[in-house]
Design a protein that fits this description.
With about 100 residues, the chain is of the alpha+beta class. It has three helices and three strands. Strand 2 and strand 3 form a beta hairpin.
């Protein structure tokens, strides 16, 4: 998104791009008072990335949903099974 717009002569900063994919959709849904930016009183669903969030090489390091840590790359007890593992039978005692 950023590279393509810059090539077309419309410079876009990463901060502006983040606004396009967070705040603007919240505004279009009429929910800007609840979601779309990090502010006191808003729902806190936040992802901490291993690198640039616009890079395909970055991975989610930590995820907070409603202010609670739900995923930590370094804490397997917080890992959930993938949708691809649902319904897959495993040997007794093994967990996906």
């Amino acid at each position: 998104m950023i590279s393509a717009s810059n090539k077309m002569g419309y410079p876009v900063t990463p901060a502006k791009a983040i606004t396009w994919i967070t705040s603007n959709p919240a505004k279009s849904l009429g929910l800007e008072d609840q979601i779309g930016s990090i502010e006191v009183g808003k729902n806190a669903d936040i992802v901490l990335w291993s690198g640039d969030p616009f890079s395909v090489y970055s991975k989610a390091s930590k995820v907070w949903i409603d202010g609670a840590l739900r995923y930590d790359q370094n804490n397997k007890s917080l890992w959930r099974t993938s949708d691809f593992n649902l319904g897959v039978l495993t040997p007794a005692g093994d967990r996906p």
